[in-house]
């Protein structure tokens, strides 16, 4: 949520942005955090805090295939 709050209200982030933010090394080890970042995004969807999108449209976890973006939920 902190990453989103640092960006424009309409901006989105990639799960890799969150993984890179959390990873403390300077190599590609952040990739191991990608799946936990995606799972966290879905928990935030369930809490109503974010939307996961593909091609700019919200998608359900069961529909998502491939790269996703995360943006603040429209209230």
TrEMBL record:
Domain of life: Bacteria
Keyword set, alphabetical order: Transferase
The keyword tRNA-binding appears for this protein: no
Alphabetical list of InterPro entries matching this protein: DUF3253, WH-like_DNA-bd_sf, WH_DNA-bd_sf
Pfam families linked: DUF3253
Molecular function terms from GO: transferase activity
Protein's recorded name: S-adenosylmethionine tRNA ribosyltransferase
């Amino acid at each position: 949520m902190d990453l989103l709050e640092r960006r424009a209200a309409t901006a989105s982030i990639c799960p890799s942005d969150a993984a890179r933010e959390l990873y403390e090394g300077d190599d590609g080890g952040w990739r191991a955090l990608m799946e936990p970042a995606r799972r966290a995004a879905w928990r935030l969807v369930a809490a109503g805090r974010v939307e996961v999108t593909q091609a700019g449209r919200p998608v359900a976890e069961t529909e998502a295939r491939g790269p996703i973006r995360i943006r603040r939920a429209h209230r």
